[in-house]
Please model this.
Amino acid sequence: MIFSTREAHMKRLTRLLAATALVLAGGGGAAAVAAPPQPPPGLPLYLALGDSVANGQNSAAPSDIDAYWAQVALWRQNGYVTPLRAYLKGALNCLPAASPNAADGCKQLQLTNLARSAVPPNGSNPGLNGVTTQSLIVEQLPVAEATLTARNKDANPRDNVQVVTLTVGGNEIFDAFQTQDPARLQAALLTFIGNYNEILARLRAAAGPDMPIITMTYFNPLPYCGYAAYGDAANYVLEALPTPYGTGLNGIIRNLSAAHGAVPAEVFGKLGAGDFFDCKHPNTSGYAKITTAFEAAWQTAMARKG
Model:
């Protein structure tokens, strides 16, 4: 059985999370998601998928802007995806063929970010829960597959998707905590394994064998937001809880990433005091550290390609 020796600690943690909500964003019911704007055709692309962390939630302090989507635009500018794109513009070689003369990097690199946070109810729209692996399979993965197939399997290498990033999994695991049911946590981890494997397999099939895919391990904010007593239990779930495919949520992410030729951005343990907006999301400095982890993962991916 996955859940065993730390049951008492985990039950205490689920009570905490029931009071403070998920470590990643939660939300309302179900609603349609607006399609992301299409980048100009014929140019290289960075494609991001994920949850509220990939959406940059709370990377910018709440403003006087009333419109939810205007606030989201501020988050996206200060999260990790937009700064990573800026880094990749200099780090990538986006010519049709790799060339030592590509001194200009990839200045025309475009961005499509399919990630989202929970969407609050608005009028007749009942809202949307935070992204899980299952909702990503339904909402984001078909768009990503179509984009990858259209660009990476056409006759024009200039418009290829150059890199995909994936940040998902925290919501469903911490949602299981709220039930205070060890069997529910075990089931959530098993579901995550199946879904995460499917996501990576389908991305790899659409992208081809060589395109970099960068995933992300999850951080533990509890020691830094007033709940240090629960930090060890959260670390156990993230790094040590036995599962059929690795220890903890992050171990699963590492092992499945390796199985599909992806590289994890190692975020666990990198954020600390002063890096969290609340018990759910990083602040600006926290997202800057996540960006650095993705840059390091990119360098690892390039080293593996030789």
About this structure: The two ends are 41 Å apart (CA to CA). The mean pLDDT is 85.
